[in-house]
Amino acid sequence: MTEERRDLVVAGSGVAGLSAAVYAARADLDPLVLEGDEPGGQLTLTTDVENYLGFPEGVGGMELVQRGKEQAEQFGAQFQHGSIEAADLDGQPLELSLSTGETLRTRALVVATGASARWVGADGEDELMGYGLSTCATCDGAFHRGDDVLVVGGGDSAMEEALFLAKFADSVTVVHRRDELRASEIMADRAREHDDVEFAWNTELEAIRGSQADGVTGATLVSHPDGYPREKYEAGADVEVEEVDVGGVFYAIGHEPNTDFLRETPVELDDDGYVRTADADTWATTATAADGVFAAGDVMDRDYQQAVTAAGTGSMAALDAEAWLESTVAPSGDSARQLSMEAGD
Asked: What is the pTM for the complete model shown?
């Protein structure tokens, strides 16, 4: 098969990847978007998005992603199923080994593979994620005005979620499997001192009740004075089981950036696996330590993790990639904007 090469590949089809694809396609870079194992990313788990600019009545997460894909395709972006399992980013062309068994070669790469929220493993979570169960209070907190809600976690993110939710909910209960928090002292104190935030110590979430039609209606909690009650419950030990009525459950036990394929490459990752972007003379850059590789969205943003910020960094990555491509000379014999896929490579 004739070897061909792309100028630009975008890994990921969430808001960051779609934004990068729109900008790159409008720049006539003919980007190829790898949709990943979960096309559309975490936003597809959100039934309603009310804080994305331009949708005063709100928009469904799936609809927003689909509109973005249609917009990118309208400008010439191409989409392909599959994800990157390994990458050789040491020289040109960049070489990507896909889950489909194919090898893809490209001059530039935008990594927009996102970060996956950690789930608890409670009964009912698969059915109710996005229907009263959420991993983002900033995204979904306003839907729970007047509700009693649970926040699962014990770190700074859990305290931040609890304090944010306290603006809307009647009560917020932080469910933590130990009797002390991992959160910083200042964040822990703020949560403890808030009148509407309570704590369920040495307690874990065992099950969530409700339906997609009615949303979350309740939860089953297990507790034990020595902590880690689910382990003891599953082992048959005597634990306290409590049924509570709640209108929402929020997971705040962290995220896992989808960067395993970058671990043996020149791209630098922080201790938690998020992509480090390079130092720059400008106020911000999406460039990484590997030439021709740029990062956008939750895969490099551990702080904001919002759809609108992901879209912003996606556009930045496309602009950075375009400037980089214009400043470098394509290898001899390469024609611009070609696809490199060799099945079985």
From this structure: 0.75
